[in-house]
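Input record, target 12 of the design panel.
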């Protein structure tokens, strides 16, 4: 048996590595999709990436599975572009490369595909790292600079203008309201260098506004 091969009749280790890389490239996409209303679509697409791994002892079936799943995911990414399905494209490309990167038949072409696959995998890893840092780690480490206050329903339509003028004298830089299924809220931002005493005064003044139920310091992850 030659080094770097599963066996003479099985899928080559390079192809297997690319297929595993495709699955790993799909993991962060699936995790991202779990937070959406279409999580089942992300789970289905992610599960399809594992199909070629069931054919590691049958090279022809492996190649066919990689081609079918890869092409379907590319087409699905076009149809579901507004749902974020295009995020599976890097994984689909890795599967297509895995299906035809056989050093036994075309060594130079296969290792070239392997190099391209490594670049795609590196891009996915970098993108996932930037995403996690920007939306998870950095907001968790950042100090909050927003007060969030619960208001009476519809309050923000008429009360924001008066609140903005009133709170600017206490250090507020932005005042805006929003309403969702969770309720009606007033969000008041202040500069990071606002002294603690002035922050306390700002919070008290927010609480004195008519129609305000409660006031809390809102995390960067939640309020930006």
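The sequence produced for target 12 reads:
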């Amino acid at each position: 048996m030659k080094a770097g091969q599963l066996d003479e009749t099985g899928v080559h280790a390079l192809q297997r590595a690319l297929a595993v890389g495709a699955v790993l490239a799909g993991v962060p996409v699936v995790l991202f999709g779990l937070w959406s209303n279409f999580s089942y679509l992300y789970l289905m697409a992610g599960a399809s990436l594992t199909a070629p791994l069931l054919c590691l002892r049958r090279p022809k079936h492996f190649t066919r599975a990689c081609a079918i799943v890869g092409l379907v995911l590319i087409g699905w990414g076009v149809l579901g572009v507004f749902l974020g399905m295009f995020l599976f494209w890097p994984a689909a490309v890795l599967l297509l490369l895995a299906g035809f990167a056989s050093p036994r038949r075309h060594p130079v072409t296969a290792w070239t595909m392997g190099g391209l696959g490594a670049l795609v995998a590196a891009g996915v890893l970098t993108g996932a790292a930037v995403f996690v840092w920007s939306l998870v780690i950095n907001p968790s480490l950042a100090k909050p600079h927003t007060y969030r206050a619960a208001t009476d329903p519809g309050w923000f339509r008429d009360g924001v203008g008066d609140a903005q003028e009133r709170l600017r004298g206490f250090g507020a830089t932005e005042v805006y309201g929003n309403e969702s299924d969770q309720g009606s809220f007033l969000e008041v931002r202040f500069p990071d260098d606002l002294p603690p005493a002035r922050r306390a005064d700002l919070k008290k003044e927010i609480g004195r506004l008519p129609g305000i139920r409660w006031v809390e310091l809102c995390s960067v992850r939640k309020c930006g």
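Residues 13-140 form one domain.
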